[in-house]
Write a structure and sequence with these properties.
With 215 residues, the protein is α+β, with helices and mostly antiparallel strands. The chain is 27% helix and 20% strand. The chain has a 5-stranded antiparallel beta sheet. It is elongated and about 60 Å long.
């Protein structure tokens, strides 16, 4: 059961740095607190969404590592901005791997974002008779109805699910459009992926592409 987490802000409060018991230590786009030369990163630091730029409560090890790299570079004077948390994650329960990046359908509806959904289900190896094939690997992609950019995606299947989530996360950060993903070139191999004509991310994007065409 996940019951939530609270940022550890004791040290920051002691030092007089602005912070909030729910959102964490106040930081800007450079991971710097309002106190000069003092930085914060990870679960204790405040966050904002890559998509909406609004405050968010995403706390993941990958986000913490990303922020730590940003903070370290900015301490060295490299001036690199945090563009916001995408919220990419993956996990595995038994033989089933799953993951997501960006917005869910619920989050889109909550933010009033109209979206087009593309999805595809198929085996994660080719041919599907190969040993240890996950027969019904599923990918769902969400695209902003206004500008066709990808804003979220979900994967359920075998071990390649994690890397597919990373593709989706990269696509969100690059603000790729539905046609960019539908017509992208990918590496495939019988033991590692679906077939060249049934690669899950491409086919899910294709499903959305033709839905856009019907608008």
């Amino acid at each position: 059961m996940g019951v939530g987490a609270a940022p550890n802000i004791k040290l920051a409060k002691k030092a007089g740095i602005p912070c909030d018991p729910r959102t964490g230590i106040e930081v800007d786009e450079y991971m710097q607190t309002p106190v000069k030369d003092v930085y914060a990163a990870g679960d204790c630091a405040s966050k904002f969404s890559f998509i909406t730029k609004k405050p968010c409560g995403i706390r993941l090890a990958s986000v913490a590592a990303h922020e730590g790299i940003l903070a370290a570079n900015n301490m060295l004077g490299h001036d690199v901005k945090n563009k916001g948390a995408v919220g990419a994650f993956s996990t595995k329960i038994g033989d089933v791997a799953m993951g997501a990046a960006g917005f869910t359908q619920h989050a889109c509806e909550k933010e009033g974002i109209e979206y087009i959904k593309g999805e595809f289900v198929g085996p994660d190896k080719h041919p599907a008779t190969l040993p240890n094939t996950f027969m019904n690997m599923k990918v769902i992609l969400l695209f902003n109805k206004q500008d066709k950019t990808i804003i979220g995606g979900h994967v359920l299947g075998g071990d390649t699910a994690a890397e597919m989530v990373n593709i989706i996360s990269t696509a969100i950060q690059a603000k790729l459009k539905v046609e960019d993903l539908y017509f992208m070139q990918v590496a495939t191999h019988p033991l590692l992926t679906g077939s060249p004509i049934a690669y899950h991310v491409v086919r899910a994007a294709g499903d959305a592409f033709f839905k856009f065409k019907k608008l």
